[in-house]
Write a structure and sequence with these properties.
This protein is α+β, with helices and mostly antiparallel strands and 248 residues long. It is built from 8 helices and 10 strands. The chain has an 8-stranded mixed β-sheet, with helices on both faces. A two-stranded antiparallel sheet has the order 1-2.
Length: 248
């Protein structure tokens, strides 16, 4: 699924908007993000644009800001970072590569109704959070709720129950015509029974109704079950990213 650089930038900007950090700032037009906790995206620099100034000075300023918060400097490096050689610069400065991820996407066609067994809310309720938080690391659990409370509209927190029990969730966010799928999770006893596939199809239907023409998500490359699920749903790799971290 070849996409133009414009569409890749649309996806990356939508993904940034869909997971808003608690604190942000500009470093020569790079987006500096900090939230505490274990979220890598919410605690890393998104370098999608740059003002063309002194790159090394900008990296130094990033390091100063994270150092002031006793946090390790981190950059999210995608295929369309600016400047293009940023990854090589960071490697020379001693930044290690961490957690390669793939960007998966597909075009959205005509929509269908969201299935009646999927609950849709505009905020994360206790049942939704009980499923999502159960599947993430303890270091991310404290910072996740305040980040989720800042998710922009239009967005939808989708929930599926079985016999009254919340078992599967997802978060849908539309930004500039791109539907971003986030927080797709199913409780362990109910996995591999079609719950995540069902809620993803509901997410896509909701996105079409909100005017999205493209759906995208970002998945850890080594997460084989997730990669298999999205392949089954006809998502294709359109790009990738990783993090560069300077250990303190």
């Amino acid at each position: 699924m070849p996409l133009s650089s414009h569409d890749l930038l649309r996806i990356e900007r939508a993904a940034v908007a869909a997971w808003p950090a608690l604190e942000t700032g500009s470093v020569q037009e790079w987006l500096w993000r900090y939230s505490g906790g274990g979220s890598q995206r919410a605690n890393s620099v998104s370098p999608l644009q740059f003002d063309g100034g002194d790159v090394e000075a900008a990296i130094g300023e990033v390091e100063r800001r994270y150092g002031a918060r006793s946090a390790a400097p981190m950059f999210q490096i995608s295929d369309i970072v600016r400047p293009a050689e940023l990854d090589q610069r960071l490697e020379r400065r001693g930044y290690r590569l961490q957690e390669p991820c793939t960007c998966l996407a597909k075009a959205l066609g005509s929509g269908t109704a969201v299935p009646g067994d999927i609950e849709v809310a505009d905020q994360a309720g206790d049942d939704w959070l009980s499923v999502y938080l159960a599947g993430i690391t303890p270091s991310r659990r404290a910072s996740a709720p305040p980040i989720l409370a800042r998710v922009p509209q239009p967005s939808a927190f989708l929930l599926r129950r079985q016999a009254g029990m919340p078992i599967s969730v997802a978060l849908a966010v539309v930004h500039a015509g791109v539907l971003i799928a986030e927080c797709v999770a199913t409780l362990a006893p109910y996995r591999r029974q079609g719950a995540s596939e069902h809620i993803m199809r509901a997410l896509e239907a909701w996105g079409v109704a909100e005017g999205a023409n493209l759906v995208a998500l970002q998945a850890v490359t080594a997460n084989a079950p997730a990669q298999a699920l999205y392949a089954k749903l006809d998502y294709q790799r359109v790009g990738g990213y990783h993090y560069r971290v300077l250990d303190r």
